Amino acid sequence: MACKFQERYGTDETFWINIDKLHRIFVCFSKEDTSEKNLKIQDEKDQNSVIDSSQFYQNEFASKCPTEREIILQKIEEILKQYFIKNTAGDIGSIQLPNRRLWKNTSFKVERGIKMIENPVLKTVGSQRKGSDAKLIKLLHVLTKVHKLIKTNSYRTKRELFYEDVNLFKKQSVLDDILDDIACLLKTPKVKLHVLTTSKGCIAGNLRYREVDGSYIDCNETNQGKGFPDVNTREMLRKLWDVLRIPILGLMDADPYGVEILSIYKYGSIAMSFDVEKLAVPEIRWLGLLPSDIEK
Questions:
Q1: Which end of the chain has fewer surrounding CB within 10 Å, N or C?
Q2: Where is the Spo11/DNA topoisomerase VI subunit A N-terminal domain (predicted)?
């Protein structure tokens, strides 16, 4: 099967080595999870043959309420499990993803913005289609990377992930698009994938906040904002609104690009419609510049 596929699509042997590697990685962490859980359960039985009722209800509640990290890990493992179960005939197989580029996959409300619908039209990645199979390999590869990052509670920047596999991705934008697809597939904000982005925007003003690691960021030390609205800037603006409920005003150019930038801040974008609750700020007001402000 591999030889026929190679002859038809011009795929080198590295393609199949990657598939085999992904399969072995999945099998390894599946066995590891199972054995760790079994050992943990057995240890608890041995060490706590008698427990009080409060411990019992606490343990029962915890077992029925997995953490957000555990839920994401379970989703990834189930996706990989189903992929390898369905594709045992030696071909590349496929995975279906929500199509983030179709307007009919979104709904719009002024008070909320552009949101992906509950049952969006799906696109198929793979199925022995030239070009699509290569994307599937990259998607599976990044899924295993994200699984490891979440499981070990470690982080990488998008740039670090790219340089770890430059020959695979070729361009940073390819990896960025795959991460967006994965976040959409898992129905989780991108930040929960443990992959960090480098913001192109800046923040300035009378604001001081604490990061997760305990460090403080003093926004008085910067003096300007800049650039097209990247995800980090949009998420920060939404957080300011959610927490402080302060007026949000936008100062944009009085041209189509300025209107587009304001619209993305206010209503979100089609590509990120699955995460609109974390990114859009419908309450933002256009302070200017207005076309009427400019004298001819």
A1: C
A2: 135-195
The angle subtended at Cα 146 by Cα 176 and Cα 119, nearest 5°, is 70
Tell me which of 9, 57, 83, 163 is the catalytic residue. 163
Question: 131 or 233, which is more confident?
Answer: 233
Q: Give the number of residues written for the chain.
A: 296
* CB atoms closer than 10 angstroms to residue 260: 14
Q: Which of 215, 79, 219, 71 is nearest to 151 (CA)?
A: 71
Beta bridge partners of 216: 210
Concerning whether 163 is annotated as a catalytic residue, the answer is yes
Q: Summarize pLDDT for 11-67 with one digit per residue, the tens.
A: 445 555 666 666 665 555 545 544 444 434 444 444 443 334 344 444 544 456 778
pLDDT band at 231 (very low <50, low <70, confident <90, very high): confident
- pLDDT tens by residue, 90-100: 566 778 889 98
